[in-house]
Design goal:
Low-confidence stretches: none
Protein name: DMT family protein
Shape: flat
Pfam families: DMT_6
InterPro entries: DUF486 (IPR007437)
Order of helices and strands: HHHH
Keywords: Membrane, Transmembrane, Transmembrane helix
Strand content: under 5%
Distance between the termini: 24 Å
Number of strands: 0
Radius of gyration: 17 Å
Oligomer: single chain
Organism: Flavipsychrobacter stenotrophus
Number of helices: 4
Structural class: mainly alpha
Length: about 120
């Protein structure tokens, strides 16, 4: 069960990360965001990124094998990267509808999934 808790925390962390890193690209489309300067956008994004760390640090702390978790360091990073891409793809499809996923994006994501398999495979 520890492994699933780690994965769930990383999913939540990545949702906040994606909004912090890319959500601000939509601010200008809203009345409240039309006149925001770069410094204001950075502060808002930094505030969102705080919550990324609120979930990411406990996920890695609890998920790391040396702390009694289920994953070694490479596996933790691999899980995090795969989740990041899944969250990013969903975010893009929902909030940036004008951005279309193309075959090469899907192929690249498939290769990352294959990399996850290779990393977790016990040879």
């Amino acid at each position: 069960m520890k492994g699933w808790k780690t994965i769930a925390l990383l999913v939540v962390s990545n949702i906040f990360m994606t909004f912090a890193w890319y959500g601000h690209l939509k601010f200008k489309q809203y009345e409240w965001g039309k006149n925001l300067g770069l410094f204001s956008i950075i502060l808002i994004s930094w505030g969102m990124a705080f919550f990324e760390y609120v979930f990411q640090v406990p996920a890695n702390e609890g998920g790391f094998k040396d702390n009694g978790g289920s994953f070694n360091l490479v596996e933790l990073k691999t899980i995090q990267e795969a989740i990041t891409l899944m969250v990013f793809m969903i975010f893009t499809l929902v909030f940036f509808k004008e951005q279309k996923l193309q075959w090469n994006h899907l192929l690249g994501f498939g290769l990352i999934v294959a990399a996850v398999y290779v990393i977790f495979k016990k040879w």
